[in-house]
């Protein structure tokens, strides 16, 4: 049955998981992997009964032999991917970020990181983007967990083009890659697929008065904040960096931001401990760099339930919220 | 070292394989002496199967440990690696003097095997319950790449308490992986006592059959039975599980009756008794 046929009997107000997928335009994994798979025969894709949620059912239709659905057995999926990678494949595993980073932490550490396998973890619906589904489906510890794993590369996509760019830029890394992805409804930051450089932030806007180093949905909020701060009194000129690479981190860009703008605010959809803010603070502290610095993250507690956009507003992960946090940091 | 391929199911005298098993026991005792701690009895229960796999069954190329067409052997019960290392050294995967560094600072050889440090180790292990899943991945890779290598995974009966084993069993049955062969070294004991008392996992074979595997149950110390089971496993049109009934500590009388030699150290007097008992069989 085609999607069109599935849609037919529905009231226009109705939706289901199949018919809603086209609305999640920022879930670009399948499109990118389908392109790569054409010229990379070693590429295989795994998911754990979430192909309809992450859009990989499209890859499945095009490359059925190279698509493996393990059923709802995420730990098994990670270890199977390890076996595939140890036999010459590049394996992309995909599941909710909470399952990838928490349920499977041990398989990821022991079977992928320790053994240095070419497995790429497409960790979607990260942060609190699952909204009212609640804490079991939120992943606000995943950056801290994966960052602490040896051999692990940690990247974070702020929109659909960034997902594609990060999949491309990490395909040949020797070792596992944790690719942090949102829910697919992110507003675009990039109007084309960006070229990411390993271990480098991307400068989205230059500025003199402060720097916002943001990742994930925080990037769009930071850009909106920069607009707000440029247009309201006192006017501020704010540098915005997309921390697409969290590990390895762009120490040069952090040091330059401190030196040239004198204030750094990190923005992330994560627990304040061990995330992007922690990683930036490590570079500053180890460099003996005195700079006004604050982490704008979620509180160290479990989020309320609400639609995701309501949660972002509540926790200040919006242009207004970030602008307020920056004014608080620099006192003007 | 020549570039020879050791073919699958090569001719081997069962009596020679039995002696290899006892040699593995002696080497285990020797290496535990270096570490002052080790898993004697976990090796002793599977020594005959180690000998049969490496000196008869597996298709190997010691000069090229990552040769894509080699048969894979994954040791889910990674704490028995101490019995695997002497074999790999003797087959030429690495110099025999590496054995003398066992567990010492910087040695490639730890209590659990590391695939990136130990040539001939097909996957790292240590956390019980993962390697059957890894084996599923390797068997899927063989199918995707249209290679005929077989993937063997040895797990313990205590390991069967781990839920991931059953996720892997379900997947292997679902995908119909006839190129995957499991061995349960069912020595009946974990660290805290008899498996059936700590967490009963019987009936093992019936469980795997219900997941779509073929199975057979053997005395894992009877070399003829081991060889016959290994042969039969390779003929199956489904994933195959060999349930090998074994004795933890087999081959040293005072170790056979208790779980407490799962981890330990033999003082000089006890070591002499154990070595003499094994040596007597080797000399017979």
UniProtKB/TrEMBL annotation, chain A:
It is an enzyme of class 2 (transferase). The keyword Flavoprotein does not apply. GO terms for molecular function: transketolase activity. InterPro entries: PDH/Transketolase, THDP-binding, Transketo_C/PFOR_II, Transketolase-like_Pyr-bd, Transketolase_C. CDD domains: TPP_PYR_DXS_TK_like. Its cofactor is thiamine diphosphate. It comes from the Bacteria. Transmembrane segments: none annotated. Gene3D superfamilies: 3.40.50.920, 3.40.50.970. Keywords: Thiamine pyrophosphate, Transferase. Its EC number is 2.2.1.1. The keyword Glycosyltransferase does not apply. Residues 23-189 form the Transketolase-like pyrimidine-binding domain. It holds the Pfam family Transketolase_C. Belongs to the transketolase family. This is Transketolase central region. It comes from Sphingopyxis granuli.
From TrEMBL, chain B:
Pfam families: Transketolase_N (PF00456). Transmembrane segments: none annotated. The keyword Transferase applies. Its cofactor is thiamine diphosphate. GO terms for molecular function: transketolase activity. Coiled coil: none annotated. The keyword Transferase applies. Belongs to the transketolase family. This is Transketolase. It comes from Sphingopyxis granuli. The gene is tkt1.
